[in-house]
Design a protein that fits this description.
Elements (H helix, E strand, L loop, with lengths): L4 E9 L2 E6 L2 E7 L1 H11 L4 E5 L11 H10 L4 E4 L5 H10 L3 E4 L1 H5 L2 H10 L4 E10 L2 E6 L4 E6 H10 L4 E6 L11 H10 L4 E4 L5 H9 L5 E4 L1 H4 L5 H10 L7
Parallel strand pairs: 1-4, 1-12, 4-5, 5-6, 6-7, 7-10, 10-11, 11-12
Antiparallel strand pairs: 1-2, 2-3, 7-8, 8-9
Length: about 250
């Protein structure tokens, strides 16, 4: 059985780690380089670094910070934000990223997924999907959740897989920052629909929430931010709790 992964997420704005609720009301959470080093030492399996305003500000991800973070960690490191070309990805991989996460650019030009997986391998390509449940439908949103689309989550997830993505990072906008638990029904449906790993994001508040998303959502990895940034859930304690519940993790 593959081990389940615990993934702290560093949302970066103006060079600082931030965290909000439902994608707004952002609060400072510290220096991303220091946090990244701490997480690598405390047992995180991977890190995700998202330059959350790069797309809206129409600029590329901050390469100098990617270099600094890469120097401090010895675990897989995914970078996203403002990536829209093969050249962007090439630059980030040379700066030390192991994988890249694309979101808005993939929706606007789905062929980008094909191009990146062909050039760098599917294991390098994570497609992030921010979706909001509206009525009974989960709809994809762009640009840090600020732009709604008419694209359904599950249809898009299937296309993403067919185009060569190696993983899907699904964030429920309804659950983001609420600490009320992950969107396990939607995560479970995604897990059944595609044959690539699903990273669950949005809603982590307790250790039980992680247990539930692995057991009921069948997620391959669980991503969280504030519960780790503010020391509410120590990663080692979380992994021990998962182990007690029969969930395989790397200790």
């Amino acid at each position: 059985m593959l081990t389940k992964r615990i993934v702290p997420c560093l949302d970066i704005k103006d060079g600082r780690t931030v965290k909000g609720v439902n994608f707004v009301d952002l609060k400072d959470a510290g220096d991303p380089v220091i946090l990244a080093k701490q997480y690598a030492e405390l047992g995180a399996d991977e890190l995700v670094f998202l330059d959350i305003s790069a797309t809206q500000e129409k600029r590329r991800t901050m390469h100098d910070m990617v270099l600094k973070v890469a120097e401090q960690v010895n675990i897989p490191f995914t970078v996203g934000g403002g990536i829209s070309s093969v050249e962007d990805v090439d630059d980030l991989l040379h700066c030390g990223a192991d994988k890249v996460s694309i979101n808005s650019a993939a929706v606007k030009r789905p062929e980008l997924i094909n191009e990146l997986s062909k050039k760098f391998g599917s294991q390098c390509v994570v497609v992030a999907v921010d979706a909001k449940k509206i009525g009974e439908e989960w709809m994809v949103h762009l640009a840090g959740g600020t732009i709604p689309t008419d694209i359904g989550l599950f249809k898009w997830a299937k296309e993403v897989e067919e185009r060569g993505a190696g993983e899907i990072l699904f964030t429920s906008m309804n659950h983001d920052g609420t600490k009320g638990g992950f969107a396990n029904e939607a995560i479970g449906k995604l897990s059944d629909l595609v044959n690539i790993p699903i990273i669950a994001s949005g809603g982590a508040g307790t250790k039980q929430h992680f247990v539930d998303t692995f057991m009921f959502g069948k997620a391959d990895a669980a991503l969280a931010a504030s519960v780790f940034h503010f020391g509410e859930i120590p990663i080692l304690e979380l992994k021990q709790e998962l182990k007690r519940n029969g969930i395989e993790v790397r200790l």
